[in-house]
């Protein structure tokens, strides 16, 4: 039965998680670890084996987006990344003109290593800048400087890579509007294809969370944070970027195709420790610990920590939440065709209430966040959970 479904299945996205970093940042709560370089080779071997297992499980699936994320994938030796990509191309049907992204941080990748990775098939890079001020980068626990970011972008372009994303963060402790404008000016003048722009969230378990509890972390002004967000929206639009998702901007035609799979409920498979998958209305996740992950794979055991079937009601809830992340919104008629008229009716009162509050609006049958809704998106999500 699975084989029949797979053959009818549209191309999937494949996420590959590399849980290693040169140094853990002070704000990061992602499943990533520093000081584990002795594990790199064994992890690569396990990852290659899991990719082969995925191919067998899903009958040599067709893939049109690959995202190698972390952590910091570029801390791996380029030979290990090349091996992962080689296994990938042997194990699944990678469609022509697929988007194949690698996350990289300045200071962990050189022109030589980038050249080898590009030769193995990567055609898009996501580079972590975060801020253009070296004092802020140091306070965040980053290992690079502004100058190293500029050097990284320049050598990627010299190697023929123009599909480049930069990650930047606003609402940092000690970050002024002047700092933010310098950061956005740097990425906008770098003529990148894509910018991901995130509001800082200080999560439990991070050094900054503990510092804030002790009152030693500078407070962030919420009004200033909102001002920063609308400044980047305006400046990016003025130089030709399309604001297509709450936190993402692209040149026309360069939206992140892999992330769009998440926001539109498309199927994807995750490989590696902590990686998540969504296939045939089943969501499952691998074990978090890299050592445990390697052990499972080497024993030919599925490294799955949990799995759950997503019923139609939950899928509809997620479709509303994720679809409203997109600036263009989502079609209610399309949802009615997929889930049935009565299912959508159950949300009509909530949508009307959000309309009255000025958080969402209709454009024909398209439901989208308003400008105020962008500020209070979490209040919208709560209504659909």
Explain this structure to me?
There is one protein chain. The protein has 16 helices and 17 strands. It starts with a helix and ends with a helix. The protein has 2 domains: 262 residues, Aldolase class I (TIM Barrel), CATH 3.20.20.70; 73 residues, Orthogonal Bundle (Arc Repressor Mutant, subunit A), CATH 1.10.10. The strands form 4 sheets. A 9-stranded mixed β-sheet has the order 9-10-8-7-6-5-4-1-11, sandwiched between helices. The protein has a 3-stranded antiparallel β-sheet with strand order 12-13-14, with no helix packed on it. The chain has 385 residues and is α/β, with parallel strands linked by helices. The protein is globular.
Helix content: 40-55%
- For the terminal residues, how far apart are their CA atoms? 32 Å
What do the pLDDT scores average to?
A: 95
CATH superfamily annotation of the largest domain: Aldolase class I
Q: What is the alpha-carbon Rg in Å? A: 21 Å
Strand residue content? 15-25%
Q: What is the tally of helical segments?
A: 16
Question: Which term fits the overall shape?
Answer: globular
């Amino acid at each position: 039965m699975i084989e029949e479904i797979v053959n009818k299945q549209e191309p999937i996205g494949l996420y590959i998680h590399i849980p290693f970093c040169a140094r853990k940042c002070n704000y990061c709560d992602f499943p990533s670890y520093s000081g584990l370089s002795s594990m790199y080779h064994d992890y690569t071997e396990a990852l290659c084996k899991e990719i082969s297992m995925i191919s067998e499980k899903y009958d040599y699936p067709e893939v049109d987006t690959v995202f190698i994320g972390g952590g910091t994938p570029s801390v791996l030796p380029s030979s290990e990344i090349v091996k992962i990509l080689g296994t990938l191309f042997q194990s699944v049907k990678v469609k022509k003109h697929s988007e194949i992204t690698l996350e990289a941080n300045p200071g962990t990748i050189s022109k030589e290593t980038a050249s080898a990775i590009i030769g193995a098939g990567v055609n898009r890079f996501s580079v972590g800048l975060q801020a253009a001020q070296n004092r802020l980068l140091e306070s965040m626990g980053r290992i690079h400087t502004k100058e190293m970011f500029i050097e990284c972008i320049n050598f990627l372009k010299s190697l023929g890579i123009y599909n480049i994303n930069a990650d930047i963060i606003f609402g940092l402790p000690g970050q002024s509007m002047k700092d933010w404008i310098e950061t956005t000016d740097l990425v906008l003048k770098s003529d990148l294809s894509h910018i991901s722009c995130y509001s800082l969230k200080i999560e439990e378990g991070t050094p900054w969370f503990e510092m804030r509890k002790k009152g030693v972390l500078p407070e962030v002004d919420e009004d200033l944070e909102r001002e920063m967000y609308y400044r980047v929206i305006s400046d990016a639009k003025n130089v030709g970027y399309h604001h297509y998702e709450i936190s993402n901007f692209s040149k026309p035609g360069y939206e992140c195709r892999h992330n769009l799979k998440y926001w539109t409920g498309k199927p994807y498979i995750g490989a590696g420790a902590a990686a998540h998958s969504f296939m045939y209305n089943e969501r499952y996740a691998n074990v978090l610990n890299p050592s445990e992950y390697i052990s499972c794979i080497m024993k030919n055991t599925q490294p799955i920590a949990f799995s759950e079937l997503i019923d139609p009601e939950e899928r509809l809830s997620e479709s509303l939440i994720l679809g409203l992340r997109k600036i263009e919104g989502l079609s209610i008629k399309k949802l009615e065709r997929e889930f049935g008229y009565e299912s959508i009716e159950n949300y009509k009162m909530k949508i009307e209430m959000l309309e009255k509050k000025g958080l969402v609006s209709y454009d024909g049958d398209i439901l989208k966040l308003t400008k105020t809704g962008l500020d209070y998106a979490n209040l919208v999500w709560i209504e659909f959970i």
